[in-house]
Model the fold of this input.
Amino acid sequence: MSGQLRFIADVMLGSLAKWLRILGFDTSYFRTIDDNEIIRIAKQEQRVLLTRDTRLVKSKKVSKHILIKANDMPGQLKEVLKSLPLAPHGSSTCPLSLPFTRCSKCNGELEFSDKESVSGNVPEHVFLNFDSFLRCGDCGKVYWEGSHKKLIDGQIRKVLGEIDTHWKISGNG
Done:
């Protein structure tokens, strides 16, 4: 996934980090981290800093950043998506063609897992009613396509429908 945009979200943007991960974006997030450390990680790992802290983005140490102004997660997600130099949705270079490939909890990559390997790691009714599972390669969390998936898909469609979905690749970055 080289060449893909990678983010680091500050402590005020935990929900945004979770939703970016759901969309397939590599997004680091720490519940507690000081400004110097988040700047160091952003530079070292070549991540775009997502923050609501106007003082932080004024620092000469911060290079790539997106200053988030919205208070609600859908608004924050729209701000990030609108600012990205993306190819049209569905193209091989568009990160939005890779949803549900990252763990929303820890940012690890999700891998297909056979039914027998998740036995004991999911509720019994889930094990009996579902055949397809994803497991995080880092934290081991197991995902399946339950009723919550429809809610997530609806939220994603709503956000995407409210922004221009015909992005073009731009030269900045």
Remarks:
- Residues 1-173 form one domain.
- Residues 150 and 156 are 10 Å apart (CA to CA).
- DSSP finds seven helices and seven strands in the chain.
- Helices lie at 14-22, 35-44, 54-57, 73-83, 115-118, 124-129, 147-161.
